[in-house]
Specification:
disordered C terminus, elongated, about 300 residues, mainly alpha, three-stranded antiparallel sheet
């Protein structure tokens, strides 16, 4: 098993250095693949040549027998496939036995979204004038108005905000940079926070670090706001409309859905959201039947003809 474990370390280094994977992603891959190697060890596998399609399929069956969620099984088999692709590319083995193993189909699950009215009611409840109140309103408006992930919002730096041209420079998954428009309510809330709220929060820092000085969203001690604070804020916002499990990603899903309903082009939305694969966006095309009927009635040339 030594060569398999050694190759795993090389693969994880490849993910971090060459693919730009975050530490969190790399650690998730490590856990999944260590489970895979432990399974292979139990099957008597000693090296690359002992692994065939049946061994990978048996691993998949073992995951299903544990009653794991389909999404978890899919993630682990995808990690196994990536590991074997790396082994082939590095010339450590000749074939990828995982490519011939089917990944279980994910259930068609629509993302959780808020209606436009629910978003308005939620955001409009944050009307306080304290520095933290202005920050919270601006943060929620940016999450929804720009479709950002929680990590992207807390990672925003002051130099990334360009009000003159109306955009934010955002670093997403894999440290990939993209330009995201900011206008309307999100721009107004962020401008007010930066002018009236952030200076007061910055003064709370006894010994401000370079990271805190650069950050857009600050905590009560003048440091960069953390992701957990964003999750807590989302839950607080959800209580306004009786959604006690509201997640920051729900605002991102809602942004995407409302943009599509408003007529946004899929490719433009792909750039704004930072999705590398267009197929990822198909989950957002769940327009309700009422909306589809309204669009049909409005657009079809024969809908209003009396025959």
């Amino acid at each position: 098993m030594f060569e398999l474990e050694n190759a795993l370390d090389e693969y994880l280094s490849h993910l971090r250095i060459e693919r730009g994977a975050s530490p969190r992603t790399a650690e998730a891959y490590r856990r999944d693949l260590e489970d895979y190697l432990a399974f292979l060890d139990g099957e008597g596998v000693e090296g690359f040549g002992d692994i065939d399609r049946e061994k990978v399929a048996a691993f998949e069956r073992s995951l299903m027998e544990q009653n794991l969620a389909v999404t978890t099984v899919r993630r682990r088999i995808s990690a196994v496939r990536g590991y074997h692709r790396f082994l082939v590319r590095e010339g450590l083995t000749d074939a990828n036995p995982a490519d011939a193993v089917d990944i279980p189909k994910a259930a068609d699950r629509l993302p959780d979204v808020l209606s436009i009215e629910e978003v308005g009611e939620t955001l409009d409840a944050f009307v306080g004038t304290r520095p933290s109140d202005l920050r919270d309103r601006a943060l929620l408006e940016v999450l929804y108005g720009c479709g950002l992930r929680a990590s992207e919002a807390v990672g925003l730096d002051m130099e990334a905000v360009n009000f003159d041209d109306g955009f934010l420079r955002v670093f997403g998954k894999g440290s990939k940079e993209r330009i995201v428009p900011i206008t309307g309510a999100a721009e107004r809330a962020l401008r007010r926070y930066l002018a009236e709220g952030r200076p007061a929060l910055a003064r709370a820092a006894a010994n401000p670090t370079a990271d805190a000085t650069a950050a857009v969203f600050l905590n009560q001690r003048g440091g960069r706001l953390g992701r957990q604070s964003v999750f807590n804020l989302a839950r607080k916002a959800g209580r306004v409309i009786g959604r006690y499990d509201l997640h920051p990603h729900t605002l991102r899903h809602s942004f995407a859905t409302h943009m599509l309903k408003g007529g946004a082009d899929l490719r433009v939305l792909q750039e704004i959201l930072g999705h590398a694969d267009m197929s990822t966006l198909q989950v957002y095309t769940h327009l309700d039947r009422t909306h589809l009927h309204e669009e049909y009635a409005h657009a079809h040339p024969r809908d209003k003809m009396n025959i």
